[in-house]
Amino acid sequence: MNYCKTCILPDIRPGIRFDGSGNCNCSTLSLKAQVDWHQRQEQFQALVKEIKSQESLYDCIIPVSGGKDSTWQTFKALEYGLNPLCVTWKTPARNTLGAANLQNLISLGVNHIDFSINPKVERKFTLKAFERMGSPLIPMHMALHAIPLQIAVNFRIPLILWGENSAYEYGGDDEALKGVHLNHAWLKQYGVTNGTTAEDWIDNELSRADLIPYFWPSDADQAKAGVTAVFLGYYFRWDPLETYHLAKEHGFQADDRPKIGYYKFADIDDSFLITIHHWMKWYKFGFTRLWDNLSLEIRNGRMTREKAIDIVCQTGDETPHNEINQFCDYVGISHEYFFEVAERFRNRKIWQQDSAGVWSIRNFLIQNWNW
Ligand SMILES: [Zn+2]
Fold it and tell me: Does residue 13 lie within any of the structural domains?
């Protein structure tokens, strides 16, 4: 396994691309410096004008969780005079802080739909996704994209305002998908559904009817309804710390300490599902959410690589025991079975086991790691 010389991400991370000099797509930041953000803002203004001229029911849909980025998206939409309908896929693991932040976002002055999925279906689908792909949040990622799209198409709301384009921010290898539009190809590649669509999950336990909230309207259906989905991060420079500061000025609350990773203002609205999702990266790719966050800090010039490595060392083992217990209760499995499934996804290309049964990662970034 090779690690980027600038940040700390390994070459095994999905979507990452290394150049000849041993660096990953850290270059996004230098590309950002070349962007004419004033011109992009004018493009957004022109888009707003075009949308307003359509006199639709609502000007746009904003998919929101209540997090810092959705607060930023909502604030921007209101700032530019759009009349949005905010839509949330309600996580079954919503916590009090998440609920308070969502309420705060609504109080900025928007109409809002909190969409709950049939809990029997959601639980079944979550367990199936965990067992089959080691990715318990495939249902969440499918639904949080499908629900706003379905509402936009059915109510003929012409615009969907997404936040940052992860293909651009975290390094994607498909240039065509790193721009302004979120389309079906983007969803399949960057929608965190392991390349699957709702169609792929129909079986004798989950019917097509059960899975309705997970179906993405096709590009053709969207075009027919006059719906365009764009990333706000294309028009305005996205930086997690900046969106956090703006959200905080408008009532968003961070946690007392990071729930997972490095930031106390990200991944905090859900009490266990997000944590399990990120934790599986340790088995599959040998890094954690902390590494993702620290790499962003390095890319933004706020941290040295040495400091990031030091933080990983100090943090040590990150096994989220509490969240694993909550997840097991939620999907109705035992603790032992959880680890049995997780082990199935331990990537043998990077992990090795010694004669005492201890697993370790070959060529790990940190020498003397306590395995
Ligand atoms: Zn890098």
Answer: no
Residue 3 C-alpha to ligand 1 middle, in angstroms? 8
Spacing, Cα 125 to ligand 1 middle (Å): 34
Per-residue model confidence as pLDDT tens digits over 10-43: 999 887 888 888 988 776 666 778 899 999 999 9
Q: Are residues 80 and 101 in the same domain?
A: yes
Is 89 strand, coil or helix?
strand
- Cα 5 to ligand 1 centroid, rounded to whole Å: 6
* Cα distance between residue 8 and residue 85, in whole Å: 39
- Mapping DSSP onto H, E and C, the string for 152-209 reads HHHHCCCEEEECCCHHHHCCCCCHHHCCCECCHHHHHHHCCCCCCCHHHHCCCCCCCC
Using the mean position of ligand 1's atoms as its centre, give its distance from the Cα of residue 308 in Å.
Answer: 12
Answer whether 0.70 is exceeded by the pTM. Answer: yes
Question: What is the 321 CA–ligand 1 centroid distance (Å)?
Answer: 30
Residues 270, 298, single domain; the answer is yes
Domain contains 17: no
Say whether both 208 and 321 belong to one domain: no
Quote the tokens at residue 46: 């022109």
Range of the domain at 73: 51-241
How do residues 38-65 score in pLDDT, each as one tens digit?
A: 999 999 999 999 999 998 999 999 999 9
Structure tokens at 88: 């949330």
**How many angstroms does the Cα of residue 295 sit away from the middle of ligand 1?**
7
Residue 76 Cα to ligand 1 midpoint, Å, equals 30
